[in-house]
Amino acid sequence: MKKIGMLGGMSWESTAQYYELINRELNRRLGCLHSARIVLNSVDFHDIELLQKAAEWGELADILSEDALSLELAGADFIVICTNTMHKVEPDIAAAVTIPVLHIADATGQVLKTDNIRRVGLLGTAFTMEQDFYKSRLATKFGIDVVIPNAEDRSLIHNVIYDELCKGVINDKSRQGYLKVIDRLHAEGCEGVILGCTEIPLLVNQSHTDIVLYDTTKIHALAAVALALAKE
């Protein structure tokens, strides 16, 4: 079994979900008292969020690259960045280490391709929805047309993530707002919707809608288990 390096804390709420999902899935596959071999480096999200707001992506890349290197030095065989947004600096992180980085958009894109999804909605932070690092990867590598909500809806999605979900606040009014955004994306021809922020599944899941949702936290965690158990 390979050792998984988790670069987490962005936020700790979703990192806790990663830890549980990875261990539950690995135990489901292996049985007995098996659990995952994990080394975790969890950042102080307060500092990360301030740098995000200031668009200090270079400094963020330096911080997370150093933390990723510490995972490699601790014996990790590959790295999982436990957030969608900070995959913006994944190329820098990957360049700083000699072990693989399991990209969340690649894991998600593979599931979308398997499901023959050609047009998909994307919910996430404003950085993930509005910048190109995530959408273009899905388009270029998997041929998927990615649709984002309108400006008002993007503001709602982003603010709920930072003001509520990252603080562990689950608000039914916010859930209803998210579901309306999902309905509008479906009305625009989206065959499914990516929950492209690792906190969103804390608020919205498949039980809340008939529209197909792609939970990137779960997808990424299961891909980590598959890689950890893959034969050399």
Structural account:
This protein has 232 residues and is of the alpha/beta class. The protein folds into 2 domains: 4-103 and 219-229, Rossmann fold (3-Layer(aba) Sandwich), CATH 3.40.50; 105-216, Rossmann fold. It contains 10 helices and 7 strands. The chain has helices spanning 12-30, 45-53, 57-73, 90-96, 104-114, 126-130, 132-142, 151-163, 172-187, 216-229; strands at 4-8, 38-42, 78-81, 119-123, 145-147, 192-195, 213-215. The strands form 2 sheets. The chain has a 4-stranded parallel beta sheet with strand order 5-4-6-7, with helices on both faces. A 3-stranded parallel beta sheet has the order 2-1-3, with helices on both faces. Strand 1, helix 1 (12-30) and strand 2 (38-42) form a beta-alpha-beta unit. Helix 1 packs across helix 10 (216-229), helix 3 runs parallel beside helix 4 and helix 8 packs antiparallel against helix 9. The protein starts with a strand and ends with a helix. The model has no long low-confidence stretch (mean pLDDT 97). Pfam families: Asp_Glu_race (PF01177). InterPro entries: Asp/Glu/hydantoin_racemase, Asp/Glu_race, Asp/Glu_racemase_AS_1, Asp/Glu_racemase_AS_2, Asp_race.
Brief write-up:
InterPro entries: Asp/Glu/hydantoin_racemase (IPR015942), Asp/Glu_race (IPR001920), Asp/Glu_racemase_AS_1 (IPR018187), Asp/Glu_racemase_AS_2 (IPR033134), Asp_race (IPR004380). With 232 residues, the chain is an alpha/beta fold.
Describe the global form. Answer: globular
Give me the oligomer status.
Answer: single chain
Number of helices: 10
The CATH C-level name of the largest domain is Alpha Beta
**Largest sheet descriptor:** 4 strands, parallel
- N-end to C-end Cα span: 10 Å
| Nearest-integer average pLDDT | 97
> Radius of gyration from the CA trace?
17 Å
